[in-house]
Amino acid sequence: MSFFASIFQGPGQAAEHAQEAAHGAEAAAHGAESAASAHGLGSIGEIPDYISHHLEDAREMEFAGLHFDLNALAFDPIHIGGLTLDLSPTRQLLFIFLAAFLCLAIFIPVARASRTREEGKAPSGIANAMEALILYFRNDVVRANIGEDGDGYTPFILTIFFFILFMNLLGLTPFGITATANLSVTAALAVISFVVTEIAGFRALGPAGYARTVFFVPHGLPTPLKPVMLVIMAPVEFLGKLTKPFALAVRLFANMMAGHILILAIVGLILVTQSFVVGGVSVLIMSALMILELFVACLQAYIFAMLTSVFIGLIRHAH
Description:
mainly alpha
């Protein structure tokens, strides 16, 4: 009947029906594409966007089909001259605070238990495990690198280690939000380490001794060569101070970012192919990678704390 109806309808009506059919086909294609994207990715080319969506910081969180909007907690930015500071909470900032809360929740009870424990009595439970870690860091990390008089730096080294460790481990939870996969976070930690290192060196060496860590002239050097040595070596020594926090920041960021990119790329491959074979093989690969990521999370926290103690020890014994 549609054939006979098209014979008796005018040209305008035919064009109108053709346009409606085209719109209907476009809507159907769009609906099919939306349905496909709801259950997977359209092509391999969408995997980079999928990865960046999960790794970049944002004011929204997704978990088990639930969507959490953090814009309700946002507030106006702070203007300081020409500088604008937006301190509104993001999902990575929430996990930073969660890592800090875990540090407080574990070590405050441990400290109280150690103070109230009877002399000569061994701790029990989590206090026993934490005391073993504290003694290890004091004896084999702080004293080994800073010296016997460096026990005062043990709380700082322990705080760095556990704070980074908790942020790394939280990134392995189903939320998958790793604050240390953000270069701004690792750079801030490296700057704190740099400031503590330089202050430790200044306190140990004094103003004159600290100045010689940049403007150093070897003993016995002929007088005419001393200005030449200062001109050549002073910029090198100064840049050497800056490369240490740079290495700390990039090492932690790159290791945590690389592992998550690899895992998310495999997940994206599953969503593109939607194949049981690819899914089964990918699950086995991701299981091995998650075990490796667990090891890397602990290792990178230890390396950051170890290198910080090494840098403090080097500048305190610069002579």
